[in-house]
Structures are given as structure tokens and as C-alpha cells.
Design goal:
elongated, 266 residues, 10 helices, Arc Repressor Mutant, subunit A, alpha+beta, Endonuclease, Chain A, 2 domains
């Protein structure tokens, strides 16, 4: 349990030595530098540096006696301060990384291709793409069994929530598919989205996957493997102007030849 506590405090921004000293002072009330060395097990040479850092973080108090004594703040105050520092670090890092990302040279974001395997990894990439959408989201040739995959893997419910959020933010969301009943489900699940179905050719094989396009900047081609006990996903992600233009050309052609759900199939 002690090792788990040390790891947990490290996740909140403390070093291993800082966590050990904080735990020792919390457990024994107070102590001198010599006591801290004995109680925490950290090297004597490291004690004063660790005490100074904990004091700078406002996690311990110092009593100016000879020798000086130290004590930890109550656990509630310690955690509140660590939480505040952690949240500030998260906010700062997010803002700075976003700034760096947006300032990238255009060439840095051109013509990238990544293969992604596994339900969680594909789900995370879809949610990431949807979160970044500012103008348009297109789900093309969506395979009906995606609903079944969602039932098997509840984590994919994040996709539905994110799509609904984007619709509420005014992002245009489009779905195309060849299954009328599936299209009806989509229209009910995502009020405000545009849903169309396209003509089914005789003897054509159903598509086991679909394509997601976001803001003319990135494309995800998803393949569903449902001939196994638990369905699995794999995908290929594309970015770059030329990649997106090629996919968008065929997706727009499909859209133009499709019919709104309420109008029935072509």
C-alpha cells in the first residue's frame, strides 16, 4: 500500500523522495532533518533539498528551533494544494501545446498516414478527430454493425456523446449509408444531423467499415472485423490536403446521389 501511495503522490507532481518525506512527517507528526533521514529512508545528503522543495510547495511548516523541526500540513490541505498545482500545470501545458500545434508550418501537417489497431485506439482517434471539428463532420458508408460494436464495447459511447455535442455547437454533421433502418436509427440518435441513404446495387457485398472526414483536414478509414467472437476494429488515418481531397471527391459524389432518409431510397 505504501508503494501505491508513493506512486499516487508522484502522479500529483512529487518526486519519490518528496513523497517519502511527506508520508513520514504525516505519520510521525514532526521531526528534525536527522529524524526525517531515519524515518523516510532517503539519503542524508538529500534531506535538506527535499525539505526546501516541500516548503516551497507549501506542503510543510518549519519551526525555527535548534535543530530545526518540520511538520506536514493536514492531508486535506496537502491534497488541495497538490490538486491546484496539478490543474494549473494541466491548463498551462494544454494552452502552450495548442499554441505550438497551431503555429506549426503547414508542411508539418501534410501527407501523414498512420495505421491504428484495436477498439480503444480507434475509438480514441475518432473522439480526438470529432473534438477538433469546427465546421463539418462526415460519416460515409457507415456500417450497421458499428452499433453492435458499440454494445460490445461501451467505451465507444464516447463517440455518440461527442457527435451530439458538436451538433449543439453548430458543426454540420452528415451520415450516409445504404441501410434504411440503420439510417432511421441514426436520425433518431442524432437530431440535427443530415442523414442520407444511397442506392443498393444487386449482389453487392455489404461494407464492413466506413470513412470519417473532419473539416477537410483529416480522414479515418475504419474496418470492422465481426467474424470473430468479439468484433474488432482497425483503421488508417490520413492528413494532408491531397489525401483529403481524394477521399472527399468520392464522398461528395456519394452524398449527391443519395436521398434524405424521409424521402426513401433512390
Amino acid at each position: 500500500m505504501m508503494n501505491e501511495l508513493i506512486e499516487s503522490l508522484q502522479q500529483l507532481g512529487l518526486t519519490s523522495y518528496e513523497a517519502k518525506v511527506l508520508i513520514a512527517l504525516t505519520q510521525y507528526g514532526s521531526g528534525t532533518a536527522a529524524d526525517i533521514h531515519a524515518l523516510s529512508g532517503i539519503p542524508r545528503s538529500a534531506v535538506y533539498g527535499v525539505i526546501t522543495r516541500l516548503d516551497d510547495k507549501g506542503l510543510i511548516e518549519t519551526q525555527n528551533t535548534k535543530p530545526m523541526r518540520y511538520r506536514a500540513l493536514p492531508p486535506g490541505r496537502v491534497i488541495d494544494r497538490l490538486k491546484e498545482d496539478f490543474e494549473n500545470a494541466v491548463k498551462f501545458s494544454r494552452e502552450k501545446l495548442d499554441s505550438i500545434y497551431k503555429a506549426r508550418p503547414e508542411a508539418a501537417s501534410e501527407d501523414q498516414v498512420w495505421n491504428i489497431n484495436g477498439v480503444k485506439n480507434v475509438n480514441d482517434r475518432i473522439v480526438q478527430m470529432l473534438d477538433s471539428a469546427e465546421e463539418e463532420i462526415i460519416f460515409a458508408s457507415s456500417y450497421p454493425s458499428l452499433n453492435e460494436v458499440t454494445k460490445v464495447y461501451p467505451i465507444m459511447g464516447d463517440i455518440k456523446q461527442t457527435v451530439r455535442k458538436k451538433i449543439s455547437e453548430g458543426v454540420q454533421v452528415k451520415f450516409t449509408g445504404r441501410d434504411k433502418s440503420y439510417a432511421d436509427e441514426i436520425e433518431k440518435a442524432f437530431p440535427g444531423a443530415e442523414v442520407r441513404t444511397y442506392r443498393q446495387r444487386k449482389k453487392s457485398h455489404p461494407l464492413k467499415g466506413g470513412i470519417l472526414v473532419v473539416d477537410n483536414k483529416e480522414v479515418l478509414v475504419v474496418t470492422i472485423k465481426d467474424d470473430v467472437v468479439t468484433p474488432n476494429l482497425s483503421a488508417t488515418w490520413y492528413s494532408g490536403r491531397e489525401h483529403v481531397r481524394i477521399f472527399k471527391h468520392f464522398i461528395e459524389a456519394e452524398w449527391e446521389t443519395s436521398s434524405p432518409v424521409n424521402a426513401g431510397p433512390l
